[in-house]
Amino acid sequence: MGYAIKINKTLQSRLPETDLMNLTFGRVFSDHMFTADWYEGQWHNLQIIPFGNLALHPATTALHYGQAIFEGMKAYPTPDGGAAIFRPEDNSERLNISATRMAMPEVPRDLFMQAVNTLVDLDQEWIPTEEGSSLYIRPYMFATDEYVGIKASDHYKFVIFTCPVKSYYDKPVKVLISDQYVRAFPGGTGEAKAAGNYAATLHPLAMARQKGFDQLLWTDGFSFQYFQEIGTMNVFFIIDGKVLTPRLNGCILHGVTRHSVIQLFNDMGIVVEERDISVRELLAAYQIGSLEDAFGTGTAATISHISHIGYKDEILSLPDIETRRLSNLVKQQLDDIKFSRCPDTHHWMHRIDVNQYSSSVLA
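Above: the chain's sequence. Below: its structure in token form.
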């Protein structure tokens, strides 16, 4: 039996005045959003309402002490006019891992899935059909105690909104290896999708962009020699025919796209080495010409080729994108699955089916 979600539809859709062919990532929002409140040990006030502002008390805990987490996933059109979401159950699991780390309540998987399913079904017409576009889905939770004091909140708000998007990066990216600032460290919140993780990167990111780079390639905070992830993506390297990615060590986000890419490579018979990768190893490979490829993976970014890697005063120029057989192949396979152009053998796509929960949704 599903949850009772009250639906209050908008009186006037903004879709007719929206150009879905001309989108800036994260700037255009769909008509509705889901909200729920946690107190007294359970979730209350489950509802879908017109997209709009939230009213917050000046002492809202999240604004002072950073108790906030989020997720990101995408919905795609299906050939029969429906919609499907890429691996939402994995995002539900990761949200709860983040919640546990940040001393926040979990969102039951059934509630998460029903809320996402109902919201995307309601705003299904907002899904762009242009190649490379999708409906980005942003679930997030934050502490709402009206109290200035350092403790876990007793009240939380869970929200989901959606926005039609194009690709996050419209060209290959240039990344700068960080040798001064740190994103995450052992025992910290690096593998949680916590809001504060991203706030800590903004100042060094601005400095990197002043130098002509798009993102930072983070390293460990002890030696600044071992790679972690890029600001918006997990990272992969192909050196001398071997596919490498940093191991999950508590400092790196458990990327859903990362897991998918590893599985697709395994399907091809290619074993991905998940291990420590050092700056020294990368520079040595570049010097002898065995650094064949580097790319990032993430929900927003999907698979983004890296064109240049900066380190101190050196810039590594990577091979032309057209020559990168493996990353282009895995990107094409992933896109084909998302857009229903090939069999979904791993059952990654969750088909939107409003009838699955219709008996328990209040209109």
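The chain has a mean pLDDT of 95.
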